[in-house]
Structure formats: structure tokens, C-alpha cells
Amino acid sequence: MECDYHPSDDRGKLRRFAQPQLMSDEPQLVTDLKHIALLALEKQQENHDFRTWAITDLQMDDAAFDLIVQEIVTDVTERVDCTQCGNCCKHFHIGVDDDDIVRLATSQKISFTAFERSRVMKSEDGDKCLMQSPCEFLDGTVCTVYEYRPTTCRDFPYLHLPKFRDYMDTAVDNTKICPIAYNTLEVLKWRMGLGSKKK
């Protein structure tokens, strides 16, 4: 079914997307990373239109919307094995703070200063991040410092945070590389009565 939503549609038509659908015949789980990258690119405009609609026209408060998102995230996360992916670790310079550096330095049995000097740099925004990308602690698709991993890694893809609407841009961007982000957004659009079922 092709998406029939457009931001220029009248508000009466928009409101029909706010009626959650029954959870049968929902979009199939997609985990192939190349397929996800292609689909995310194909659906980029649809996803940005959905974000605009959710922020400006969806007649639902943040708490109710977040609850739907969390239900979907929980279900998708249980069906996606991150240790078979590791894609997020390959595409970013991982952001770190001082607490992260302490944990990572401990994992390498070196001092905070030694770790910071040899492994950390400043991003264009002035924030601290690990120098290497892909992450030096990634072995194939598995994190070798999982118990010590930075907070940003623990939180990625950030779908559990409150007020999902406030960071939907990030969620849409992450659909290109993260199976959890991609599948969560696809099911969310479907629950809202919107979206292509093309796979």
C-alpha cells in the first residue's frame, strides 16, 4: 500500500492517522543492513513528512505518544540481535564524557590521562569523542568493552528517551544504519495509519 499522506492534506484527513491500528499484519522485520540503507533512503521524504505531521498535527500528548513508541521499541529490540550488527559502531566517532573515559581507561588498564591523550579527540562541535571510526573496540560485530561502553552507546538509538517528538530528526537519521530504529519507525507509522508496506 502506497503512502497517501501529504503535509498539505487538510487537518481532518490528518487526524485519521492518529487512530492506532490493530497489531495484525504489521510491517515485517527487516535486518539486512544493505536493504535497510536502501529502504531508508527510499522512504526519507515519507519519514520526514511523518515527523512533521507528528510534531505539528498529531492530536496526542507526549506521554501517550511515547507509550506507543516504547511498546514498539520493546518488541523490536527483543527481535533484533545487536551483536550480529555493530553498524552503529562503524559509522560514528563515539561521543564520550569524563565518566566514559574513566571506564574505558579502566578496561585498558591505563590512566585517564593516557587514555585521553591517545584515544580521544575533539569533534567539530568541540565535544570529546573516540578518535577511531569504526570504533577500535569493535571486533567484527561485537563490542569488546561492552561492560565499560560509553553512555552514548548504552543509549543508542535513543528511542527510549521521553518526548520522542523532540528528537525525531535523530530517529529518522538513524533508520539508515540501525535495524531497531528502522523497524521501530516503520511499525510506528503503521500504527498511526501511515506508511508504505513495500519491503
Summarize the structure.
The chain has helices spanning 11-15, 33-42, 44-56, 62-79, 88-91, 98-108, 112-119, 151-155, 168-174, 179-191; strands at residues 120-122, 128-130, 138-139, 142-143.
* Biggest sheet features: 2 strands, antiparallel
Class by SSE composition: mainly alpha
**Sheet with the most strands: spatial strand order:** 1-2
* Coarse morphology: elongated
Count the domains.
2
Mean pLDDT: 87
Q: In what range is the share of β-strand residues?
A: 5-15%
- Unreliable stretches (pLDDT < 50, length at least 5) are 1-23
First-to-last CA distance: 11 Å
CA-atom Rg in angstroms: 19 Å
Approximate helicity band: 40-55%
Count of individual beta strands: 4
SS element count, helices: 10
What is the assembly state of the chains in this entry?
single chain
Order of helices and strands: HHHHHHHEEEEHHH
